Structures are given as structure tokens and as C-alpha cells.
Amino acid sequence: MGTTTGPHLRTYAFGLGTVLGMIGALAYSSFVLEAFLHTGLSPLHSYVSELSVAGRPYAFLFRAGDITAGCGLLALALALARRLPATRRRASGCVALAVTAAASIGDGLWPMPCAPSVDPVCRATDSTDLDQQLGQIHTLSSLAEFTGAILAMLLLRKVLQRTGHRRPARWSLTAGVATAALGALEIAMVLTGVRWVGLSERAQVLLVSAWCAAMARLLLRIPPVSAPPHDPTAVPRAKSLTRIRRLNPGRSRIRHAFARSFQQAAGLLRRMVQSRARIRDPRILRIGDHPSADRAPREHRQAA
């Protein structure tokens, strides 16, 4: 019973990660609901985050979408970390995706203080005081969100390519490069005063959502990393020593070197004590006192 429960639980866990990741990917693009709701904002000139500004219509709905997306993407990052082969790029890519998820939750908890596309005072402040804009929690979380998404796309692309998933790897590379290009275009629009930032930002969010949905779907196609078969005749290793080697292998080697030197010195001292005890023990005959020592010369004299 124990041999079948583990794989079934892992399958259910990965299935749950797929479902939660797909929900997070869909909730990440919750701005598409503005096509059916009257928000009073222009999709071409307004930031996506303006939908969550306090006092705006349906602001609570879009903030809940950001938090839901963050929770779903965090589950996706954990599932990918358990499903993909253990490499440094996998660990870095999953951490970057987790940063994106945490930043999305931060966007929902700390929204923009005002809507610059419809508020002239807010727009004038954002265009003149860049330090104040960068000092807002929402601005920092948004930068961390898209930076983490781009890094996750580019890092996991190499892992997918090595596991034989060439099409998802190419899609991951394309999405990462396109997302970075759209982010650079958005920054250029903000610095030059072009008011078409809404279009580029929405395309950027859609790309991230599509990539996350593709990764969630890929979870069901990636074979699980199989553990080495259990050998019942193998001698179990010391858990404490294994833990020390895992946490700090350098210090473990130094400790083993000292222990080996101490054992050699103790063995040498023990042999020296035993040899001196043999010399002082009268019951142990020396080589010259042994009866067989002068037997050969005596027999030689008799023969002569």
C-alpha cells in the first residue's frame, strides 16, 4: 500500500499545481474584464494598475485578481521546482517566478495611490517627481514582478531544452525576449511622455499570462524525476554526518582530516606502548635468549 500511495499523492499534487497555476495565469490577466465592465479608463492610455486604485469602480475585483494570480503562480513555481530536474537554472528560474508571484500579491495589497491617465495632478506629479514615484511600494513591486517573469522565462528555457521540450523552450525564449522589449518600450514611452503605455503594458501582461499557462500545462507532460531504487541490503549512512556534509561540505572534510590524523596518531602511540611492554615483560624471551638461537652453532661444532 505504501508503494502506490506515494506516486498517487505526487500525481495529485502536480495536478493541483497545474490547476492552481492555470487559475493564476488567468487571474493575472484580469484586466480583460474591463471590456465588460465600465471602469472609466482607456485601455490605450491607462496603466493596468490604475484599475486597482482605491475609489475606482470594481477596484476590489481587480485587486483580488492580483492576489489570486500571485497565489496561483506561487503554487506553479513550487510544482515546477519539484517536477523539473534539479539544476541551478531550475532553482533560479523557480525563485524568479516566486518573486513574480509575491510581487503580484504586493500589487493587490498596495495599489497605485492615484490614476495618472484621468487625474491631471497625479499625472503631473509622476512626470516631474521621479523619486517619489520610485519610492512607492507599488512601483517597486511592479518592477520586481516583470523582472522576475523575464528571468524565469530565460532561465527555465535552458532547462526545458535539456529535457527535450524544444517547442516550450523556444516559446519561453520568445516570450522572455518579447516581454523585455515591451518593458523597454514602456519605459521609453514614460520618459518621453507618449501616452500609449496602456497598449504595451497590456500586451506584456498577456505574454506573461500565456507563458504561465503554458508552464502549467507542461506540468502534466514532464515525466517525474524518479528516485534511485531502494537497496534493502545497503548499509544506512549516518544521518548526522550526511546532514553536516549537505550543509557545509568544506567543514566536513576538515573534520574528517583531523579525525583521520588523530586516529593515526593514536594507533602509533598504541603500538609504541605495546612494543615497550613486550621489551619489559620478562615472560617474553629475547632473540638471543631463545633456545633455538644457539642450536645451529652447537650442532655445527658437533659436526666438526
What do you see in this structure?
This protein is mostly helical and 304 residues long. It has two domains: 7-218, no CATH class; 242-303. The protein has eleven helices and no strands. The chain has helices at 2-28, 59-83, 88-109, 120-128, 130-134, 137-162, 166-192, 197-218, 239-247, 249-280, 295-303. Helix 1 runs antiparallel to helix 2 and helix 7 runs antiparallel to helix 8. The longest helix has 32 residues, at 249-280. The chain is elongated, with a radius of gyration of 35 Å.
Write the layout of secondary structure elements.
Elements: H1 2-28, H2 59-83, H3 88-109, H4 120-128, H5 130-134, H6 137-162, H7 166-192, H8 197-218, H9 239-247, H10 249-280, H11 295-303
Helix pairs in contact: 1-2, 1-8, 2-3, 3-6, 6-7, 7-8, 9-10
Number of helices: 11
Shape: elongated
Mean pLDDT: 80
- State the end-to-end distance: 90 Å
Low-confidence stretches: 1-5, 243-247, 285-291
Radius of gyration: 35 Å
Number of domains: 2
Count of distinct strands:
0
Q: How much β-strand is present in the residues?
A: under 5%
> The biggest beta sheet, please?
none
User: What is the oligomer described by this structure?
Assistant: single chain
Helix content: over 70%
Order of helices and strands: HHHHHHHHHHH
What structural class do you assign from the helix and strand content?
Answer: mainly alpha
